[in-house]
DNA sequence: CAAACGTGGGT
DNA sequence: TACCCAAGTTT
């Protein structure tokens, strides 16, 4: 029987026509041949390695994560090791991965794991979700990749694969919808181990073949079933895909300020921070924001440092 | 729910 | 040169 019958009252027409069974084997077989050998996927990689990678990979490409992930695991092999450090050291070691609040949240998550979970990354999806910086995607990813559980894992790659293969659109909606969750649930293999493999395989397919810019359909194991291809690969029609501005924004100023703090072993005088941006109002607002977020700690006399 | 939140490489 | 995009989460 189809998995959809058990978990979805009425699968969408597209899912019924496609049927998960037609897709599982080709995608999983393709994964077996083409999966990248990533550190957090190796047999000896523990849940902590997976969790660190998931935090780092939130909006940051794999190639830039690789060296930093290796450093972190060597330096802090268990959650308690990171928890024993100051949050500022986590922010410093985060380097230029971007979105440094992730470093703070990962440190906070490690602290919670050490204090409330006996130092072990929790297996339970709800407990994972309760950790700082862990949202719907990351909770499912850790439960699935680290512990082999059966969860829908909806990242941008999987959403794009399903948008094309199932819905026949060039791109998924801007935000994850209930319809996407239904589709993913209907396609999720019944067997736990197969489901976990499927999650990793669909993600890898999106990352390597069914890419955003120029998909290589000639290498796609399910091209023959793809609704988007069958419809003639129509261009994206909906509202413009949301872009991110950066130049001149507070984000850019925050980035410069934090770069100075990261580069300094000790506290930094106001003057060194003032040098990174000409406009005093925006500069002050950005610094206040960093303090507000806990990324920067003000000391007396206009001196600042990463949080101790 | 839209907007904020870094950084860098590809086209 | 601009703009797009990258294993999202939080408010």
Automatic annotation (TrEMBL):
Region called Disordered, residue ranges: 1-20
Domain of life according to the entry: Bacteria
Record protein name field: Adenine DNA glycosylase
Biased composition (Polar residues): 1-13
Keywords per UniProt: 4Fe-4S, DNA damage, DNA repair, Glycosidase, Hydrolase, Iron, Iron-sulfur, Metal-binding
Residue ranges of domain HhH-GPD in the record: 56-208
GO molecular function: 4 iron, 4 sulfur cluster binding; 8-oxo-7,8-dihydroguanine DNA N-glycosylase activity; adenine/guanine mispair binding; metal ion binding; oxidized purine DNA binding; purine-specific mismatch base pair DNA N-glycosylase activity
Record field: catalytic activity: Hydrolyzes free adenine bases from 7,8-dihydro-8-oxoguanine:adenine mismatched double-stranded DNA, leaving an apurinic site
Keyword flag Hydrolase: yes
Gene3D superfamilies linked to this entry: Helix-hairpin-Helix base-excision DNA repair enzymes (C-terminal), Hypothetical protein, domain 2
Enzyme class: hydrolase
Needed co-factor(s): [4Fe-4S] cluster
């Amino acid at each position: 029987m189809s998995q959809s019958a058990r978990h979805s009252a009425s699968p969408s027409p597209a899912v019924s026509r496609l049927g998960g069974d037609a897709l599982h084997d080709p995608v999983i077989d393709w994964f077996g041949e083409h999966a990248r050998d990533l550190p957090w996927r190796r047999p000896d990689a523990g849940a902590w390695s997976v969790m660190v990678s998931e935090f780092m990979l939130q909006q940051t490409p794999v190639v830039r994560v690789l060296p930093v992930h290796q450093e972190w695991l060597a330096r802090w092999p268990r959650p308690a090791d990171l928890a024993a450090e100051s949050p500022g050291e986590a922010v410093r070691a985060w380097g230029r991965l971007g979105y440094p609040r992730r470093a703070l949240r990962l440190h906070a998550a490690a602290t919670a794991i050490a204090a409330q979970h006996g130092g072990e990354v929790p297996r339970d999806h709800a407990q994972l979700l309760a950790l700082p910086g862990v949202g719907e995607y990351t909770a499912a990813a850790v439960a699935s990749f680290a512990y082999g559980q059966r969860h829908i894992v909806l990242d941008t790659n999987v959403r794009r694969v399903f948008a094309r293969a199932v819905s026949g659109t060039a791109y998924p909606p801007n935000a994850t919808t209930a319809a996407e969750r239904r589709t993913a649930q209907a396609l999720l293999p019944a067997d736990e181990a197969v489901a976990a493999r499927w999650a990793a395989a669909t993600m890898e397919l999106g990352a390597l073949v069914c890419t955003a810019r120029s998909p290589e359909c000639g290498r796609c194991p399910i091209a023959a079933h793809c609704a988007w291809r069958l419809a003639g690969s129509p261009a994206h029609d909906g509202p413009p895909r949301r872009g991110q501005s950066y130049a001149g924004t507070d984000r850019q100023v925050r980035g410069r300020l934090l770069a100075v703090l990261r580069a300094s072993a000790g506290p930094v005088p106001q003057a060194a921070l003032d040098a990174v941006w000409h406009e005093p109002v925006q500069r002050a607002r950005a610094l206040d924001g960093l303090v507000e977020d806990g990324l920067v700690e003000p000391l007396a006399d206009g001196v600042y440092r990463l949080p101790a």
